[in-house]
Specification:
heterotrimer, A alpha/beta (395), B alpha/beta (311), C mainly beta (98), A: Rossmann fold, 6-stranded mixed beta sheet, 5-stranded mixed beta sheet, globular, B: two-stranded antiparallel ribbon
Chain lengths: 395, 311, 98
């Protein structure tokens, strides 16, 4: 029987870590992810887990030590947010190219500047090209469930890539919600032990990691990483299926909400999907308009074909980005979804919105306005701007 | 441990750094690595760490590794943190019964990767007390990128970013004293050494560093013929002059106690060490005698300071 | 030979995962002896087996067996001349060329 609890997102991740009982966790404090290492330190202090904590002096060292531990053969993870992740930047690429199945509990927060501690996806979106798998959550339940699937995905022999399990700072990380926890023995069975084929401390062979690779090898190395990322698509679905068998909770690359007959769709990542669902329920109830939502769970590997297929017959689509990338056309989610639609020659009108930057609130009414605009765009075929803002003050 | 030093027996121990690496002819860095690794007990396994630098790009150039042991390079500034992770993993896996063998953890970094960009990561690793040795092969500049100044570069050295010129006498600042800073971390073992005729000083310090439980730091002056500007064959003369002028004193700090390893009977004038090196050539131009005097005064001051600590 | 399995012609499928190498000391296959512009010549008659030349070699090119030094490993010796300089007995001389 599942265990009913009320936990914050950070508590849920920490609880998952306790159940997984990993080997090594180096971590450095930063708001809003700090609670995760705090809870883990408490578990260790009370003898509840075997994990060794490394009190590193920076996030760069946190990821460096995690990388060393993982290469050595241990199951290793860390947690961070925002600037902490920015300080790890170089190491994110090293972890991915070294093909080390590290797990990062990322609590999304705006990158400085100006300094801001609230939810925003600029940290992980900036790292989208680093070669990490990225899985996002709408709720505490989802972040817990995603976390339990993280090591099995990353450590799969056809993948061997690092993975970040993302949740929205404060909204999810600090908001307490009802949650169903999986029993300890089931988690142990689901996650299993890490048994790497090659590792530094293997008594039967010597291993060297992290070479200087000249141009004769670099490109082939990148191609191999891409192949692993492609394999991750299959493995993510396999793990989701195993997870569903265990819990009854179903996961895929994305969630489709009221999309069966939808004509107008919003595409979004993270906690704001909940607000969007409330707007959809209200719109459908009061006007009967066919509005729907596609909530991205897996952003890397990007499920391009599946997203295109789900969206191609819409009349109009709004893609909502919670991070800036200062391109001419859109935010990162907007750019990738647009590219996917171009590939299937979709006739859907597409508009991109920036919302929630640095923790700016987004409301049910905001979503109603978005759906109204989509209807108008579909009628007139006129899009004034490639991108627009939700909740921006302007003269 | 290291009670007696039988040179021939030590030289007969198996090599743990294989040939075929791409370090320059006459490289001091590789002499350091070979002789530090020789201090490992034959029955012990090891994981060797490495900061980015000459050594890394030359000793593990895909698919050619020069190491007889497992090896990890991560990046320039994080050799301390990376090996912290490896060592911690070892402790957990050993506790869980997944590993039976004894492993030792030794990481190498140049002075750029140690005194400068890797300083924070080194300090963190030492403060946390991981059972590892951080070895700095100090050649006094960023040699991998072409002899740029580091905080280990001696005052007045002509480097590519502190070139001597009509308005410049080379590097303005004096060297950072990293061994002293590491000693102030109150770790159980700090040693400073270089190459001596029979390598006893380096070997015994390396053995103590490796086999003292807890964090240890070893600073090894490792001359670079290209960066310093001397004939490759002259390395042992350069090292001897560095020691006999007290430019590079040999000492160790064991549990906070400072111990002088060697005091020259005849302390030679600093210019004997400076003269054979191209990087100090400008100091011997007429009118620059005062600069050598300043440099000598700094060496004397530090030597006296060290003698006081070692009393 | 690792160079038979991984070399500049290898397709991406043959590059080891994460560029890790699962064996020790593969660098031995790379002959740095090619770099030499002068070559040490060993005179076994003059050598007293003091072994002072052994630790100073940056290229691990003076093998030792049963406390006696063997012939130079000329596949790897780069000809730096440090050994010749430290030999107290003149048993090593440097000859121009490879």
């Amino acid at each position: 029987m599942a265990i009913r609890e009320r936990l914050s997102g950070n508590e849920a991740v920490a609880y998952a870590i306790k159940q997984i009982n990993p080997d090594v966790m180096p971590a450095f404090p930063i708001t809003p992810s700090t609670e995760i290492p705090q809870y883990v330190a408490t578990y260790i202090a009370n003898g509840e887990i075997d994990t060794e904590f490394i009190h590193v002096e920076s996030e760069h060292s946190a990821m460096s030590a995690t990388l060393g531990a993982c290469a050595a053969g241990a199951r290793a993870l860390t947690a961070t947010s925002s600037c902490g992740m920015a300080l790890m930047w170089e190491e994110l690429y090293v972890a991915a190219s070294d093909r080390l199945p590290i797990v990062l509990a990322l609590v999304n927060r705006a990158l400085t500047g100006p300094i801001n501690i609230n939810a925003d996806h600029s940290d992980s979106m900036g790292a989208r090209d680093s070669g990490w798998i990225q899985i996002y959550a709408e709720s505490n339940q989802e972040v817990y469930d995603n976390f339990l699937q993280a090591f099995p995905i990353a450590e799969h022999k056809d993948v061997q890539l690092p993975i970040m399990i993302c949740q929205d700072g404060f909204i999810t990380s600090h908001g307490v919600e009802n949650i169903l926890l999986v029993e300890d023995d089931l988690v142990k069975e689901f996650v299993g032990e890490r048994n790497p084929e090659h590792y530094l401390l293997n008594p039967n062979e010597k291993m060297s990691v992290g070479p200087y690779a000249v141009s004769n090898y670099y490109m082939e190395t990148k191609k191999a990483q891409r192949e692993a990322m492609n394999n991750a698509k299959r493995v993510i679905l396999e793990m989701a299926e195993r997870f569903e068998k265990m819990t009854g909770r179903k996961y895929g690359f994305f969630e489709e909400y009221c999309m069966d007959d939808a004509e107008y769709a919003v595409v979004i990542i993270g906690s704001a999907a909940g607000t969007c669902k409330a707007a959809i329920d209200e719109i459908r109830q009061t006007t009967g308009k066919k509005v729907g939502l596609l909530k991205i769970r897996v952003f890397r590997p990007f499920p391009e074909e599946e997203i295109a297929l789900a969206l191609k017959d819409m009349k109009a689509i709004a893609i909502l980005d919670r991070s800036e990338m200062f391109s001419a056309t859109s935010g990162p989610l907007g750019a990738e979804v647009r590219a996917a639609l171009y590939g299937v020659k979709s006739q859907a009108e597409v508009v991109n919105y920036f919302y929630g930057l640095g923790g700016r609130d987004i409301t049910v009414d905001d979503f109603k306005v978005v759906y109204d605009k989509l209807e108008k765009i579909a009628e007139t075929g006129e899009i004034t701007d490639m991108y627009d803002y939700i909740g921006l003050r302007s003269r | 441990m290291a009670e007696k030093y039988n040179f021939k027996e030590v030289m007969s121990k198996p090599e743990r750094l294989a040939p075929g690496h791409r370090m320059c002819a006459g490289c001091g860095g590789t002499i350091t690595v070979r002789n530090v690794l020789r201090a490992l007990h034959e029955e012990d396994k090891a994981v060797i760490g490495n900061a980015t630098g000459c050594l890394e790009v030359s000793s593990y150039m895909y698919p050619y590794t020069a190491y007889e042991d497992s090896y990890i390079h991560n990046a320039f500034e994080n050799a301390g943190a990376t090996l912290s992770g490896v060592e911690t993993a070892y402790n957990v896996l050993k506790k869980k019964g997944k590993i039976k063998d004894t492993y030792k953890f030794i990481t190498f970094g140049g002075d750029g990767g140690t005194y400068d960009i890797g300083f924070q990561s080194l300090s963190g690793a030492m403060e946390r007390g991981h059972d590892m040795v951080y070895v700095c092969y100090d050649n006094g500049a960023y040699m991998n990128t072409g002899t740029q100044r580091s905080s280990a570069t001696p005052q007045f050295a002509d480097t590519t970013t502190t070139p001597a010129g009509s308005q410049s006498n080379g590097k303005v600042q004096i060297r950072k004293d990293l061994a002293a800073i590491m000693a102030e971390h109150h770790i159980p073992y700090v040693g400073q050494t270089t190459f001596t005729r029979d390598f006893k000083d380096l070997y015994t310090k390396a053995e103590k560093a490796i086999y003292t439980p807890g964090a240890a730091f070893l600073n090894v002056m490792s001359p670079c013929p290209r960066g310093w500007g001397y004939e490759t064959s002259e390395i042992m003369t350069i090292c001897k002059l560095a020691v006999d002028t007290c430019y590079w004193p040999l000492f160790e700090v064991i549990d906070g106690k400072w111990i002088l390893s060697y005091a020259p009977k005849n302390k030679l004038p600093l210019e004997d060490f400076l003269r054979p090196q191209r990087r100090f050539k400008h100091l011997f131009k007429p009118g620059n005698e005062e600069l050598i005097g300043l440099f000598q005064a700094e060496v004397d001051r530090r030597w006296e300071e060290l003698l006081n600590k070692c009393e | 030979m690792i160079s038979d399995r991984i070399n500049e012609k290898s397709p991406w499928q043959d590059i080891t995962e994460g560029n890790k190498i699962y064996e020790a000391a593969t660098s031995r296959e790379f002959c740095t002896g090619e770099w030499r512009t002068s070559t040490p010549v060993f005179d076994g008659m003059k050598c007293k087996q003091c072994l002072l030349c052994v630790p100073v070699c940056p290229d691990s090119s003076i093998p030792v067996k049963d406390q006696r030094r063997m012939a130079f490993d000329l596949d790897h010796c780069k000809g730096c001349g440090i050994c010749a300089k430290v030999c107290p007995f003149g048993a090593i001389t440097m000859r121009e060329g490879k």
